[in-house]
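To whoever is on call:

I kicked off a structure prediction for a single chain this morning and the downstream step that reads the tokens threw a length-mismatch warning. I double-checked the sequence; it's 206 residues and nothing unusual in it as far as I can see. Pasting both halves so you can look.
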Amino acid sequence: MKHSHFRIGLKFWCGGQPWRCTDVGTRVITAISLAPHEVVEVTSPRRSSARVKTRRYLTNDLSWLVGPPYAVAEEVFDEYSQEGCSLRVQRTADHPSSANTMLQRPRDKRANGVIGAAAILQHSSIPRRPLTQDETFVLEQIRDMYGPQNSEDQVFFTERNEAALLVTDRNGVQGMWAVLTNLGAWYADGTIGSVQELREQWLTPG
């Protein structure tokens, strides 16, 4: 993409992830990542001798994307970064040179949600639990859309006990995170109004 293609509010793709343009300058643009992100909560004890408590969890809460100002960090895209952007839905496999973008760049806030998830997958001691009826319903939609390889044993659990899945399509490409707990709750309480909305707006990249 070129600088002239961007406008505030435009959704685009870069590095296999969705972004929303938040500002357009004379040379650069800024944008926020629409991917799930990691939240770090730090609790300071009243007693100075007590330990500071830190808690990490993965979320796709849309309130973090409301702004300006935004709760998530805005990233700057210069001319070189803009060339790697597209209005076409991208997956990480579209970019062989950066196929692991979503699992690398530890300082890159646009990948924070997936970095947090990757850490959980590799190092978590969080015990597994059975999926709830609402979570199972969302998983069934994913399996119907993308294939049975998205099985329950591929689901992991965050420190907030949220069930999340890195969705794999029928070609073996992993390109979208689905937090089953949130999606199931939003469908159950009517925030997501129909199965069609769930599938087309929440379980389809772009």
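Update from on-call: the warning came from a stale cache, not from the record. Cleared it. Sanity check on the structure: The chain has two domains: 3-123, 133-202.
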